[in-house]
Amino acid sequence: MHHARFSVCHTMFATRSLKHRKAMLYSFYVLIVCIVFYFVICLGANYVDSEKLPGGPVKKDLKKVLNKTHRESPTANERPQAQVIPKTVEDNQQPVKKHQGRVNMHIFEDCCGGSLQKLRSNLLYPLFPNVRTTVSRLSISPQWRNYGLRTFGYIHPAVTGEYIFGVGSDDNSEFWLSLNESPQNLERLAYVGETGDEWSAPGEYWKFASQISKPVLLVKDMKYFFEALLKQNEGMDHLQIAWRLNQDSSNFEVITSEFLSLYEDESSLLMGDIDHIPQTEASYDRFLESIPKSPNPVGDMIREDLRDHIFKIPLMDESYTKVLFPECDYKPSYIIGTKIGRYHGVNLIHFSSVYPNDYTRQTYAHDEHLCFYKQDTSFEESKGFAGYLNEVADPDVQGNNKEGPNWQRVYDVKPFDAGSKQSTVAVNSCKRAGNIVMSQNQAMPIVKAFMTALHSKDATRGYSLLRVLNVVRRQDNGKGSRYLVELELVGSQGQKVLVSRYVYAQQTETAQQLPALCSPKQFNWNPSATVHVIVAVKNQARWVIQFIREMEKIYRVTGDKNFNVIIIDYNSSDMDIEKRLKNAKLPSYTFKKMEGNFQRSGGLQAGINLVEDSHSILFLTDLHLYHPLNLLNSIRKHCVEGKMVYAPVVMRLDCGASPRAPSGFWETAGYGLMGIYKSDIDRIGGMNTAEFKDKWGGEDWELLDRVLENGLEVERLHLRNFLHHFHSKRGMWGNSA
């Protein structure tokens, strides 16, 4: 009996042991499956993150968009969005042991204003700094003025924990931090001001609520991409980024070298090497972003104007327009054609006038003064604008001779068109006045006479006037006026066309219903003429790249294949210009390397010599320019071979101004930017390379003298959105002043 119980117990124990072993075995299998599944998930996450969060310059989303420099502008949806830094750290992030003790710092000089918006509006930001260097801690005070700083790299926390960041600066600043080592995942954690007026004392992190961040979890041995921005105007300048653990006993301390490392070692890179520069939510290239068209813009010049995109309208066939008017001799009395005194040509240039108003006048400039009004003969400086008010007696109101205001006094005021009061003599013009504006009474009779001629021909009778786009008048006192008439027409089938033609109207003493128009003999513009844009350079990498990008912009938007970029390089050492041109989206380019010191006249002449077609147009230009999209169209229609050259007036931007908010003065005395036919510049002798071999400045006036002496007209107009960026001469062609 005992033995039987033992056998039963033994059997039961064996059965339980077997079941226990099976359970353990099953548990082991499940554990193996879980481990494999875990590694699969980790590998998948790592793959997704490697696609989504690169550890260098932005390669997806933002950079993909920004690198489309020849196709389209980036949109807000395509830019990386700032992400909230989580309270946990991703397991797949790789630890980094090597700390290099420094971070990258890019300096953007010649940038006025205290707000970071001024820095971001700079077309050179963030790819083209003046200086690229490094610093060993996040506390700086360069003791300089009118600059912006971008400091970026990696932060390496020494211990795992929640950190609080503080920023102090004069003027405005921002501190951005990524959730990992990718520049694409930034969030703005702390900042000092946004208007340019805010500042703090060094180490003062409690002046504004925005200066101190919320707690952020950071993990030891991980690296985190950061970006710190500073905008300085005048006075004291400083920036500190400090941190502390989220503990009652901790204090803010400046982040020092043992917790920092470089984003990129730039010591062996040329200034023309820009592909490594990170573009982020905090700092990205806005070059391709269109300037927003507000119904109430800050300045009228950024208001949409029909002339800005006139090239988009197809031209009416010339065979229809050339028979509209009888030919007439065209010999204006202001043509010189004889020897003049040295540099006297600038005193002989007169402006043409335009219709409708192109808003090139700087109406919003605070320092416009009264220059514009003093040219009106009825203006009395002692009375100011009171002279424009003519008091009208009110019979129902008795006179009031008491001191103080008289609320019932009323006046008569005559219309005052200030735009028509601008002096036609260029050297006497107000620097902020802009183009002379014709009145409607002056322009519309010419338009009506043009349309009457158009309707007199069977081929063009079906066209109606849709809009007056542009009328330009060059007045010849006592004789008549030359007009460029540009009208948008609509045909009977709804097709829109552009008519653009020069006409002449003689001045008559008797008033006529409509002026008699004629076609000035051999005075027509060629819409298909090739334009060669010529510039000479030396060691100006960031401006050269910007110039090429400007030319790409024009080609991308207009699709105009009849232009060629010519760059003459005086052996630049800061970039490979030819390589950049080869990769550029341009219809054509010509590159020539020159030895020796920089010569503007010699370089331009070298470019002129490269052009073989004498019936093409040369546009002698410079760096540091923002070009309007209608540049080529404007050059073609204001250059007439054997008759006229084009000298557009450029606006010199004030320090801190940009194409998005332009303010400055018109360079009415400068003639270094000129469009001229190759045959004409050859005829007048080209650039004066003998006298201006080792210097520049004055070569434009000397060239203008010879243009006038050889009987050529000069069309002088302020060109909308043709801007010269503010810059000092520090670092230009070896100039360190």
TrEMBL record:
Keywords: Golgi apparatus, Membrane, Signal-anchor, Transferase, Transmembrane, Transmembrane helix. GO terms for molecular function: acetylgalactosaminyltransferase activity. It is found in: Golgi apparatus, Golgi stack membrane. One of its GO terms (cellular component) is Golgi cisterna membrane. The keyword Transmembrane applies. Residues 98-259 form the PA14 domain. Its main location: Golgi. PROSITE patterns: PA14. The keyword Transmembrane helix applies. The chain crosses the membrane at residues 26-48. InterPro entries: Chond_GalNAc (IPR008428), CS_glycosyltransferase (IPR051227), Nucleotide-diphossugar_trans (IPR029044), PA14/GLEYA (IPR037524). Its EC number is 2.4.1.-. It is a single-pass type II membrane protein. Belongs to the chondroitin N-acetylgalactosaminyltransferase family. This is Hexosyltransferase.
